[in-house]
Specification:
about 280 residues; alpha/beta; Rossmann fold; five-stranded mixed barrel; 8 helices; 9 strands; about 30% helix; about 25% strand; globular
């Protein structure tokens, strides 16, 4: 069996490739979930790197996840921010390990970003949520069975037992809410539950999640957050509620509905992100 390079070595190869493509030093990292990848069209001086070109970078085959790392400048009335954005992500249900699921987020962190903003499309477990709502993630439940820190720890990246008592940074969360208020966008707060997928949850599972305190459910994001916090990078999270969770609506769940709803709210999401990033990286 061929020897596989350790995580730090694989990250160094990926970083060398990315830095060879652009001279921008990103201050903010973004992970753009299902149907949300169009945000990169707002970046100027943008360099787009397909995941398959980057050494060790896993490639998603899920519709709605384009599979490119885009580095450019977000120019707003509040200032200009250099951004590295993952246009799509991989998931554990595709067969990737936790370490591989989090690899892209680790690349963003290793590029030197001051913060990581993760976004996703999620089902609304909280019955007061409706499709199209934007929610600031305040905490998560990792019910996926996947953790990117399983295995030998690399002290060059972070501690063996990182503290997740503030997985989602309170200061960044407050700035998200301020940006949403300025943009006239209602921003809710909620706890995100990560399930393994790829099948959607049963009504009984949704009732369980409600009892556990979840407001949102999805199949991503949490491994990226754990990896970023392991590396000491603060995290903020935004979910787009794209559908009622199982049992809360008579409509069957579908990925097409998820992508359609995410696309419908992209301008509101972009307004929040554009208002948030300049102040967040200061």
């Amino acid at each position: 069996m061929p020897h596989r390079a350790d995580l730090s070595t694989r990250l160094s190869y990926a970083l060398a490739w990315v830095r060879g493509k652009t001279d921008l030093a990103p201050a903010a990292g973004l992970v753009l979930g299902s149907g949300l990848g169009d945000f990169v069209d707002r970046l100027e001086r943008a360099v787009s790197i397909p995941y398959e070109e980057i050494p060790s970078f896993p490639v998603s085959r899920v519709p709605g996840h384009v599979g490119r790392l885009v580095i450019g400048e977000l120019v707003t009335s509040e200032g200009t921010v250099a951004v590295a954005a993952m246009q799509g992500r991989v998931h554990g249900y595709e067969g990737w390990s936790g370490e591989e699921v989090a690899f892209g987020a680790r690349v963003l962190c290793a590029l030197g970003v001051k913060l990581l903003l993760v976004t996703n499309a999620a089902g609304g477990v909280n019955p007061t949520y409706a499709p199209g709502d934007l929610v600031r993630i305040v905490d998560h439940l990792n019910l996926s069975g996947v953790n990117p820190l399983v295995g030998a720890n690399d002290e060059r990246l972070g501690p063996r037992f990182p503290d997740l008592s503030e997985a989602y940074d309170a200061r960044l969360g407050a700035l998200l809410e301020e940006a949403a208020a300025r943009a006239g966008v209602t921003l809710r707060r909620g706890v995100y539950a990560c399930m393994p997928g790829p099948s959607y949850e049963t009504p009984a599972e949704i009732r369980m999640l409600r009892l556990l305190g979840a407001d949102l459910v999805g199949m991503s994001t949490v491994p990226e957050v754990i990896a970023a916090r392991h590396m000491g990078v603060p995290v903020a999270g935004l979910s787009v509620v794209t559908n009622f969770a199982a049992g809360l609506s008579r409509r069957p769940l579908s990925h097409e509905e998820v992508a359609e709803t995410a696309g419908r709210v992209r301008d509101r999401l972009a307004a929040v992100v554009e208002g948030f990033l300049p102040g967040a990286v200061r």
